[in-house]
Amino acid sequence: MKLEYAEIYRRMGLKINYYRKLRGMTQEELAEKIDKNTSYLASVEAPNIDRSLSLDALLDIARVLDVPAYKFLKDDDI
After folding, report:
1. Mean pLDDT, to the nearest integer, of 37-65?
2. Sign of torsion over alpha carbons 4, 48, 46, 39
3. For residues 45 and 14, is the Cβ–Cβ distance under 8 A?
4. Which value, to the nearest 10 degrees, does the dihedral of the CA atoms of residues 68, 72, 74, 75 take?
5. What pTM, to 2 d.p., does this model score?
6. Class of the 3-73 domain?
7. Could you give the C-alpha distances from 46 to 16, 66, in angstroms and in order?
């Protein structure tokens, strides 16, 4: 991951966390539905870990959470 994108990935992780909780899902449930392990999802959501994610993973998360993918990329408050 390019250092210049670290803040974008951090905000995406926070938004994933927000929408996951809004849907009443645990990290384990979401991870299972996107065919990833829980530690992967936890690292994506963690604000203190710089973790990138693929477009495929983002689209899977958006589909499962029923949130348009652009909302995770949009630079605004949740």
Report:
1. 95
2. positive
3. yes
4. 160
5. 0.91
6. mainly alpha
7. 10, 21
